[in-house]
Design a protein that fits this description.
The protein has about 375 residues and is α/β, with parallel strands linked by helices. It has a domain of about 210 residues: NAD(P)-binding Rossmann-like Domain (Rossmann fold, 3-Layer(aba) Sandwich). It is built from twelve helices and 13 strands. The strands form four sheets. The protein has a seven-stranded parallel sheet with strand order 3-2-1-4-5-6-11, with helices on both faces. Strands 7-10 form a two-stranded parallel ribbon. A two-stranded parallel ribbon has the order 8-13. Helix 10 crosses helix 11. The termini are far apart. The structure holds NADP nicotinamide-adenine-dinucleotide phosphate and ligand F7E.
């Protein structure tokens, strides 16, 4: 049987990288688009040996430059790759930043999907289309939220995603295109972008532990989110396109926690009281907030057989361990051993040992000479 060709937009992002891994493992020929950046934006997929020299027709994993705001570039990659499945994951994905850049957010996130769907229609491509829709579309609708819940978005991001959601349904109904929406609730991982709250917290904890930073400054600690693990959520994306008919599915953990609980759990792992290390600033509060997201993914469970495995505490543990490893290696607390695999618990334990050396009073870091790097830095002070 001929291998299927999948095109992933946003392949360099958190979800794109996990999805590329999953589809390569399933035997797909994987194609991706990245946009031009002044500094490499392929860090999350470099380990997958991207082909740059072979012809795209034969390389198992190949990327091209294209941009969701550029219809010419989109048509060119569709022409070249002729995908069987398109996963449209590219977007300006930061809700807070969408208030600062509303016009480009709507251009990429609302018009981008329209450009792809209309190219599929116009070129008569025989392919399935997945739209990365978001729980942010529910906005202030009371929880739990499912496929029937009214959508009341509160941000330019949410409004753009809602337009794309309806565009996807319209192209399905009007033109018979196999176009489906995955309405995904927040999902995180060690590969999460640095300015999302979970990564900001776990990276911040690691920085505090190694003496890089004294505090983490956050916005609204009362917001509640339904946080899952990205690697499991990309399996749901794939299942949505393997279903016998196009449809829309909520993907979530059915659990919700406040930002404060995330912070508390992370610092608890280090045996530290979060209140000594976290400051709240209006700078990180949004003009309008989505107070509670809690997804009811019963339909996906029943129809697709998809269920999340990773629980809230495991997610925090995994992300803190990853950031501790990275920081401890960078600052010389641990040797860099690419071929040695240690458990997450090992790094958490090392973090706890270092945490004991932090002085008791607020934000005072004791440079006690544990790290050769810090010894060197102290000498030069
Ligand atoms: P992410 O890490 O921010 O990745 C987004 C990707 O889109 C990046 O590779 C980015 O490229 C690319 N991109 C942005 N603008 C583009 C443009 N104009 N043209 C081409 N590529 C562009 O996001 P993610 O967490 O993987 O999320 C994947 C998708 O799911 C997004 O559409 C997001 O809105 C949606 N979603 C995410 C969540 C979540 O909790 N993670 C929940 C629901 C829905 P650069 O690296 O160059 O910036
Ligand atoms: O914020 C609050 C913030 O930026 C979560 C995206 O993947 O999920 C994500 O959007 C909560 C919000 O994610 C800070 O106000 C407090 O209530 O991590 P976030 P998000 O806005 O929920 C949806 C489903 C998507 O589709 C998006 O693409 O945390 N919060 N203090 C903060 N948030 C940030 N970023 N930074 C803070 O300092």
């Amino acid at each position: 049987m001929e291998k299927k060709v999948a095109l992933i937009t946003g392949i360099g992002g958190q979800d794109g990288s996990y999805l590329a891994e999953l589809l390569l493992k399933k035997g797909y020929i994987v194609r991706g688009i990245i946009r031009r950046a002044s500094w490499p934006n392929t860090k999350r997929i470099d380990h997958l040996n991207i082909e740059r020299s072979k012809e795209s027709a034969v390389a198992p994993f190949f990327i091209r430059y294209a941009d969701l705001s550029d219809a010419i570039s989109i048509r060119a990659v569709l022409e070249e790759f002729k995908p069987d499945e398109i996963y449209n994951l590219a977007s300006q994905s930061h809700v807070g930043i969408s208030f600062k850049c509303p016009e480009s957010t709507l251009n990429f996130n609302a018009l981008g999907p329209l450009r792809i769907l209309d190219a599929i229609r116009d070129m008569k491509l025989d392919c399935k289309y997945y739209q990365a829709s978001s729980s942010e579309m529910f906005g202030i609708s009371p929880p739990p939220q499912n496929e029937e819940t009214p959508m009341l978005p509160q941000s330019p991001y949410g409004i753009a995603k809602l337009a794309a959601f309806h565009t996807t349904k319209m192209y399905r109904n009007a033109y018979g295109i196999f176009a489906s929406n995955g309405i995904l609730f927040n999902h995180e991982s060690p590969r999460r972008g640095l300015n999302f709250v979970t990564k900001k917290i776990t990276r911040g904890i690691a920085d505090i532990i190694v003496g890089n930073k004294k505090k983490i400054v956050l916005g609204n600690l009362d917001a509640k989110r339904d946080w899952g693990f990205s690697k499991e959520y990309v399996e749901a994306m794939w299942k949505i396109l393997q279903h016998d008919k196009p449809d829309d599915f909520v993907i979530s953990t059915k659990e919700t926690h406040t930002v404060r609980e995330f912070v508390e759990e992370g610092f608890n792992l280090m045996g530290l009281d979060w209140k000594n290390f976290v400051e709240v600033s209006d700078m990180y509060k949004r003009p309008a907030e989505v107070p509670v997201l809690l997804g009811d993914s019963s339909k996906a469970e029943k129809v697709l057989g998809w269920k999340p495995k990773t629980k809230f505490k495991e997610l925090v543990h995994m992300m803190v361990a990853y950031d501790l490893k990275e920081r401890m290696e960078q600052l010389g607390y641990l040797p860099i051993e690419p071929n040695v695999k240690k458990s997450d618990e090992f790094y958490i334990e090392k973090g706890r040992e270092l945490a004991k050396k932090l002085k008791k009073h607020k934000w005072q870091i004791e440079l006690d000479g544990t790290s050769p790097f810090l010894q060197e830095r102290k000498k030069n002070l």
